[in-house]
Protein: Arylesterase
Amino acid sequence: MTFITRLAALLLLALLMSCGKQAELPRLPSTATVLAFGDSLTFGTGATPETSYPAVLAGLIGRKVENAGIPGNTTADGVARFATVLDETQPGLVILCLGGNDFLRRLDEAETVGNLRKMLDEARSRKLPVVLIATPKPGFGVDVPDFYAELAKEYSVPLEAEALEDILTQGALKSDAIHPNAEGYQQMAEAVAALLKDAGAI
Structure:
C-alpha cells in the first residue's frame, strides 16, 4: 500500500467515524423521567400498552418513561401541547418523534420543519436534552427526509434515523402499513436505548 493510498484510507475512516458520531447527552439520574413525546408511533398503536416502545424502553434503561404519544398528532398538534406536557412531567430528557401524520396529510414540509424547530427551541430554552427520532415518509417505499439530520446537526442533538425505516420495511414487524407490532416496538426501544448509551445518557 502506497503512502497516498494509506492516507486516503485513513481519511475515509476518519470521515466515516465522524459521520457516525452522535451528539453527547448529560448523564441521566436514575430518578429522572424520560418524556417520550409523539403520535401513534409513541402511543403504541398496533400493540398493547405494555409493549409500546416507551414501556419497553423503561425496562431497558431503568428509568421512568412517560408516554405522551397521541395518535393522529401532527407537528402542529405537538407544538400546541409541548410546553404544557413539559410543565406536567418535568422530564430530564425528551425523545421527540413526530412528522408521520404531516406526511400522510401531505402538509407543507417547511411547516413540519418549523414546528419541529419550535419544539426543539422550547426544550433548549429549558436546557432539556433531546433525542430526535426520524419518521419515514411513505411513498413507493419508506424514506427518511433529510431535514431530520439537518435539525439534529443544527441543535446538536442525537438522532435515531434508521430504526423506524428498517422496521417499516419488514412485514413481520408491522401491525399495519404504518405501525409496528410488539416485536417492531421492541426493536425500536432497543435502538433508542443503544443510542442513549452511546451518547452517555445511560
Q: What stands out?
A: The longest helix spans residues 3-20. The longest strand covers residues 33-38.
